């Protein structure tokens, strides 16, 4: 799990200059030997442990590091 | 006195039908009066501000909502849709106005007690405005703020024993028609199927892993009361294999005018005497019916189970006894490529017990679509891009004649080399002995 977390976090951070939200499909190439539903379990764990969070438009859901991106600040209600 | 002047919305109230504008005004007045003395957890005037922002949008010809966000309940990737108003100073009551979707019970059977409790929660913690039901069938609770979300979630799950519905790139809340609980046309237990698959695929409902949304719908018969074939990526539609059961005496009674056709549904106007030739026989889409010598005959091999004759003469005609369901895939609304109806993939499954046959098809399709589907691509679009033939392979179905749309011109189904005796290579000299250039 730790190894998978590192792969995912490293991937997101390598892209952090251009984007903060990712489609589920973006993570599949990181784990070429795994079934998509196994990759989902890893991502779900990362959400549960508050490393990552979901962003949803209502029709599409994306994943990002918790607190990353400009919307995070704008959307939390004080 | 209304908080905002809304002349354009007021005009909507003058039409012949009940108006949502009147409903929102009624809720605004109710919240202002507060007869129950509630300690409202979100701004009391949010229905007024909702009307105000809508009037502004009508004037400006553009929306003032921002859509989407990181709001949600912990661990769930769906069920809550963030909405923010882009004019929060003008309309502070709807500055944050998130939608909550709840999973409706199968067939939408409620107790009044459940509805009262639900409204009590929503009056206190939300706008009091609901949409019963959304397009997917969910109970839609319109308008609350982020701090209320976990409270609502706790109360709905613990006090009402009810879960959130689907949103985002998830499995959406499955929907079923009333099925065997009310309807003699139901060919399988749609509510059991909907419940069973909802429970089985909880993780897909709550944690996103799909390229885009995915909808199941369960119709008990081809009448399609939840419009599975038009609306869902995965449509399960009741059907039967044997013949329509005919009660010849009852047919004669319809012809003699003793029974009203369509169970009297068209009695508002005088359509004249019932004409079985014009209203049933000639309307059969596959010309499978005959009316000769006072006897009705149906050619089973031609019947496409469109339900028209059964709907017209329900006392005389009944669905067959060898019942089950067909699985069709790929319906969607027209965001890309135009609207699409489902295509038949599995002609018949028994749809019984644990619905294992259906689940096997679902899981094969998901595995394929999760790998091959592009972001924001519905199953129907993946099917069009990669062919129905590919989907049939994934599901393990042999193509049949009805999978070919236009033979020899634009077929869905192509032969593969291993399926053709001798493959693509041939001895040209052998061939030329029999065929001149």
What does this molecule look like?
The complex is a heterodimer of chains A (78) and B (437). Chain A is of the alpha+beta class. Chain A has three helices and two strands. Chain A has one domain: Arc Repressor Mutant, subunit A (Orthogonal Bundle), CATH 1.10.10.10. In chain A, strand 1 and strand 2 form a beta hairpin. Chain A is globular. In chain B, the strands form five sheets. Chain B has a five-stranded mixed sheet with strand order 7-8-9-14-15. Chain B has 437 residues and is an alpha+beta fold. Chain B has three domains: 152 residues, Alpha-Beta Plaits (2-Layer Sandwich); 164 residues, 2-Layer Sandwich (Sulfite Reductase Hemoprotein, domain 1); 74 residues, Alpha-Beta Plaits, CATH 3.30.70. The mean pLDDT of chain B is 93. Chains A and B meet through helix 2, strand 1 and helix 3 of A and strand 2 and helix 12 of B.
By helix and strand content of chain B, what is the structural category? alpha+beta
| CATH topology assignment of the largest domain in chain B | Sulfite Reductase Hemoprotein, domain 1
N→C terminal distance of chain B:
91 Å
Strand content of chain A: 5-15%
Count of distinct strands of chain B: 15
Mean pLDDT across residues of chain A: 88
Beta-strand content estimate of chain B: 5-15%
């Amino acid at each position: 799990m730790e190894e998978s977390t590192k792969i995912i976090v490293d991937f997101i951070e390598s892209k952090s200059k251009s984007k903060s939200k990712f489609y589920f499909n973006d993570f599949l190439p990181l784990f070429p030997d795994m079934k998509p539903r196994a990759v989902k379990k890893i991502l779900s764990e990362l959400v549960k442990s508050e490393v990552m969070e979901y962003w949803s438009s209502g029709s599409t859901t994306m994943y990002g590091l918790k607190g990353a991106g400009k919307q995070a600040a704008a959307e939390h209600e004080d | 006195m209304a908080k905002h002047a809304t002349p354009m919305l007021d005009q909507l109230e003058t039409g012949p039908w009940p108006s949502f504008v009147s409903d929102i005004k009624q809720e605004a007045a109710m919240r202002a009066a507060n007869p129950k003395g509630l300690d409202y957890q979100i701004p009391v005037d949010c229905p007024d501000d909702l009307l105000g922002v809508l009037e502004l949008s009508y004037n400006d010809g553009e929306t003032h909502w921002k859509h989407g966000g990181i709001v949600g309940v912990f661990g769930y990737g769906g069920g809550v849709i963030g909405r923010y108003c882009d004019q929060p100073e003008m309309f502070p009551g709807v500055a944050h106005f998130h939608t909550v979707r709840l999973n409706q019970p199968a067939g939408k059977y409620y107790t009044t007690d459940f509805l009262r409790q639900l409204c009590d929660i929503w009056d206190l913690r939300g706008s009091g405005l609901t949409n019963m039901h959304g397009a997917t069938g969910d109970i839609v609770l319109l308008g609350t703020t982020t701090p209320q979300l976990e409270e609502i979630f706790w109360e709905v799950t613990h006090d009402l024993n009810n879960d959130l519905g689907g949103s985002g790139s998830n499995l959406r809340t499955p929907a079923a028609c009333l099925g065997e609980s009310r309807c003699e046309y139901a060919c399988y237990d749609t509510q059991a199927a909907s419940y069973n698959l909802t429970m089985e695929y909880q993780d897909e409902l709550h944690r996103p892993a799909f390229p885009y949304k995915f909808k199941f719908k369960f119709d008990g018969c081809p009448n399609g009361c939840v419009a599975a074939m038009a609306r869902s990526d995965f449509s399960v539609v009741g059907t039967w294999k044997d013949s329509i059961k005919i009660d010849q005496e009852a047919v004669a009674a319809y012809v003699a005018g003793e029974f009203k056709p369509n169970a009297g549904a068209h009695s508002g106007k005088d359509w004249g005497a019932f004409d079985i030739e014009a209203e049933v026989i000639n309307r059969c889409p596959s010309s499978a019916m005959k009316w000769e010598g006072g006897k009705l005959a149906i050619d089973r091999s031609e019947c496409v189970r469109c339900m028209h004759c059964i709907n017209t003469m329900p006392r005389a005609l009944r669905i067959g006894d060898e019942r089950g369901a067909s699985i069709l895939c790929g319906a969607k609304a027209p965001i890309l490529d135009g609207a699409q109806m489902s295509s038949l993939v599995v002609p018949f499954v028994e749809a019984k017990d644990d619905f294992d046959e259906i689940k096997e098809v679902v899981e094969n399709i998901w595995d394929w679509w999760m790998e091959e589907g592009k972001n924001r691509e519905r199953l129907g679009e993946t099917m069009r891009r990669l062919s129905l033939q590919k989907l049939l392979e994934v599901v393990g179905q042999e193509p049949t004649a009805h999978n070919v749309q236009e033979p020899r011109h634009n077929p869905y189904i192509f032969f593969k080399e291993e399926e053709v005796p001798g493959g693509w290579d041939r001895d040209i000299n052998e061939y030329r002995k029999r065929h001149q250039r």
